[in-house]
Amino acid sequence: MSGPSTYNPKSGFEKWIDQRLPLPRLLHDTVHTFPTPRNLNIWYTFGGILAFCLVVQILTGVVLAMHYVANANLAFDSVESIMRDVNYGWLMRYIHSNGASMFFLAVYIHMFRGLYYGSYKNPRELIWILGVLIYLLMMATAFFGYVLPWGQMSFWGATVITNLFTAIPLIGKGIAVWLWGDFAVGDATLNRFFSLHYLLPFIIAGVVVLHIWALHVTGNNNPLGIDVKSPQDTVPFHPYYTVKDAFYLCLFVLFFAVFVFYAPNFFGNPDNYIKANPLVTPTDIVPEWYLLPYYAMLRSIPNKLIGVIVMAGAIVTLFLVPWLDTSRVRSCRFRPLMKQFFWAFVVCCVILGYCGSQSVDAAIAGIPLVWLARLASIYYYAFFWLILPIVGLIETPRKLPASIAQSVLGDSAAAAAE
Amino acid sequence: MRLQLALALPLGLVAGFLVSAPAFAIDTTRLPVKSVDFSFDGPFGTYDRAALQRGFQVYKEVCSTCHSLDHIAFHDLDEAGGPGFTEAQAKAIAASYKLPADPDDKGDIFDDKGVRLTRAGTLADSFPPPFPNEEAARANNGGKLPPDLSMIVKARDGGAAYVYSIATGFHETPPAGFKVPDGTYYNPYFEGWAIGMPNTALVANAVTYSDGTKATIEQEAHDVATFLAWASDTKMEQRKSMGLAVLVFLVVLSGLLFAAYRKVWKDAH
Amino acid sequence: MTATTHDAGTRRDFLYVASGAMGAVGAAAALWPFIDQMNPSAAALALASIEADISAIVPGQQVVVKWRGHPLFLRRRTPAEIAAANAVDVSSLPDPLAYNDGLPDSAPATDANRAIKADMLVLIGVCTHLGCTPTVSTPAAPQGDYGGWLCHCHGSQYDTAGRIRKGPAPRNLEVPPYSYLTNTRIKVG
User: Fold this and answer.
1) What angle do CA B57, B59, B60 make, to 5 degrees?
2) Residue C70 annotated among the catalytic residues of the structure
């Protein structure tokens, strides 16, 4: 919880800086002494992991931008030059491309954690909203970034997504031409996407600062979903969570390194190693895996405009979650009915992702995938607009523990039971 | 010959469209790639230098007639993790190619007979393409564009095994009822089963290997697939060896951090 | 819960120090690729060395080619120009050192130390003052008083061995590392 600072500068240097700019004090209060619930589990380490991912993407991205040429005739070859000629260029590129996938993997875990433990509920609504804003900016950044290598998927993915705007009545085509800077995706589009791809991560960094600031006003939620009641419920962030975050970050980097060094094209599409050709459309246009669920929703609706609305609505819905959930209890650990709908939601997202990865006329056991995508889309909307409000009202939650300290220190069996 | 090609092209396209239309009986989805081993498979795989050099010979003497290798420069031939030529050998290979010369003192790029002025290649140059532009490539190949090979292994699902399957798949017999459109050739490993590449291109003994290896089709295909895998991924060996060092380091660091974590938290419960 | 606190303290400190040190080593090792990627790439290095055919250059003529982004002067000297270069007392020169990348730094600026074969000068065409390209002096169009080069930017004058004689330039024109592959072909760099 935010309160008066207990900072006491230990060296003359610290005191000199602190008198002129309270940065040492800020670091002390937010990273050193910040009282954090003592029962945070592995799912709470992903915030720190995400900050690491953002730094990695910015560092490798700035380096790549030293060698990349944002011109339609030269872009593809400049990326190949990075891969072949620039010292460690292959490493920078593979870290950046796999880093994007790792970034989204971490953000999805982080978001599902928030849903499960009710971290979006009062008084943390704004943390959640800022988080969804970060997610939206991430998707835009990733979309612009994927266009830059100017492969077949870059070009055709850009064409399909920018063409979505033509669904808007009257002004849609004008908006699309305005985005393209031309009558179709081309050099003008590539240049502006490069500029925006460089800009957006720094906007994300700014929103992340607000996100963490808002978190520090209310303090962290915890797996029990109950408020901190006394100092026994918390431990100082350092050394308890610095060492825990460092350990889990190391495991995450290990996982990341396996892809960078041994399966660097696992998340990619071979068609993007073919130079963009406006006259040849690939047989299957597929976005990167982290955008597949939305792609599936879009394609499940035969009407172009309604498909766009359904897809956009899915993201807008996320902003409203704090008000859609009516439950007085935060954590799904104590919500036996909601818990099951939550896991069904996770499965639904995976199904949507799978549907998005297959071609439009694919079928499984004779059932066209488009019907599976429709069912999953319906469940997605139902989860937020029907299940969250209704289950919160009708469910009988389990008895909450008296306090975090009692749960963790007193009765360890209660902490173990999920 | 020209007339036949000119007729074959539209006929071939129409026939190809008819044959590959989903409503008809035969499913012409390409066969799964052949199961074949390569020395560079797996986390510890490396490129077989001799195979790379033989594959380079196949590319140079057979494939380069139609296929470019745009992203490989001559100086890549002597770099670590590659075919292992010496700098002198790479220079000699470069010099054997004629590249378009810069304008002479009068500003001409053609000589008196209208032939393009050329100069010998240097280590800094990339492999020159067999055709100056896409239109010339199509005109010389029945309207089909032979793809550039320097990225082919990364640009195709199935990678080196796909290239090997295509290269060895020309001599299969089409099933009854499948008509190969004119101007194309039967290859069941290619989507639609009809490929524009002639089945006379890669045959047994198309090259005579300088190290005496028997030049069967399988050998030539295996070697050229290895060479093209290197062309797509020249840094593979450096990547895998750095990966080993990084993973070992991270495992040890994780162990240390885990011990520190347990120690710090031991008193908290 | 509290084992001997002294032991627990040192054990925890050791782990902290060890993990922190290892993390720092990892971070430093990870930093190197970020630094090295700014060094010239393989494509730039491939152009680090060029070969030039000098057979068509006649006495009194200079050809300029590009080497590592700089102009390279290839000048065939006349016997008179060679004699003039040899006649100079090296110790009286503003820069008495050879500035030849193929020789030790202390080598004096004798004409023999400025060219492998006397009739051919190979010099980096960058004025050692502030980097302009000096203009070559020919009998038809003399530049400066020493028959070599005149830099029009600030008036530096070089002699027929490319040595600075007058003007603000502090050093002689630099001789790059080069060698004769054959009588008519040199490799520079």
Assistant:
1) 65
2) no
